Amino acid sequence: MKIGLIGYGKMGQAIEAIALERGHEITGIVNRTHYIDEFNWNDVDVAIEFTKPDLAIPHIQSCLQNHVPIVVGTTAWQQELPKVEELVKTHNGSLLHASNFSIGVNIFFEINRKLAEIMNRHPEYKVSMEEIHHVQKLDAPSGTAVSLANDILAIHDEYNAWNLASEPSRENSISIKAIREPNVPGTHEVSYESEIDLIRIEHIAHNRKGFALGAVLAAEFLAGKKGIFTMKDVLK
């Protein structure tokens, strides 16, 4: 495939390396010096977008208007998803979005949902979460942490919201501690603690390669399809 990279930071460069390894071609790059309106849309089969939350919607719109499928790895824009769904429908386009493209993290999502189902029968255990990312990550908590929390909220009767640990605690809310440290690809931890013991699940990323591979697999999946998809569709 001919892939356009929207965003060429550390993640974009990792995606480029994986895409080339898998026999694809990078035919366009958007960064701080090469803008999206300079794209040759006729030479792009699919775009992969990892930028900033405030740029994601304009980038999605540009791709849809030019009939280019787009894989979106940027997080913290999903409150605009109804608007994006309408754009995809209007342009008969293709979009795949995820809070995390790592295959391991998506397996972790499944484990988290199963554990929440079990722990819903044991309210004596109180849930909390912690996530650690690199200092350049703008959103806190991470999109992955929000996805983990929302999955628990959908299953566990004890909780109806989440909040940052740095904020005042709220009743029936899941506390999420967000830590930023240099050179950390990503760690996510979900804990259930009672007076007697502690149950904890954790995912630790060693590098960005897993995220990059997942994004390229998502692009390969999206080729030739119409509509809105997530990593659940890719894993199926």
Concise account of the structure shown:
This protein has 236 residues and is an alpha/beta fold. It is built from seven helices and eleven strands.
What does this structure look like?
With 236 residues, this protein is of the alpha/beta class. It folds into 2 domains: 127 residues, Rossmann fold (3-Layer(aba) Sandwich); 102 residues, Dihydrodipicolinate Reductase, domain 2, CATH 3.30.360. The chain is built from 7 helices and 11 strands. The strands form 2 sheets. The chain has a 6-stranded parallel beta sheet, sandwiched between helices. A hairpin with a 4-residue loop joins strand 9 and strand 10. It starts with a strand and ends with a helix. 38% of the residues are buried.
* Unreliable sequence segments: none
Number of strands: 11
How much helicity do the residues have? Answer: 25-40%
**Rounded to an integer, what's the Rg over CA atoms?**
19 Å
Give the averaged pLDDT, no decimals: 95
**SSE string, helix = H, strand = E?**
EHEEHEHEHEHEEEEHEH
> What is the CATH architecture assignment of the largest domain?
3-Layer(aba) Sandwich
Per the CATH scheme, the topology name of the largest domain is: Rossmann fold
- Main sheet properties: 6 strands, parallel
Strand order, main sheet: write it out. Answer: 2-1-3-4-5-11
Q: Report, as a whole number of angstroms, the end-to-end distance.
A: 22 Å
Strand content is 25-35%
CATH first level of the largest domain:
Alpha Beta
| CATH homology superfamily name of the largest domain | NAD(P)-binding Rossmann-like Domain
Q: Count of helical segments?
A: 7
Class per helix and strand makeup: alpha/beta
Question: Which geometry do the CA atoms define?
Answer: elongated
**Number of structural domains:** 2
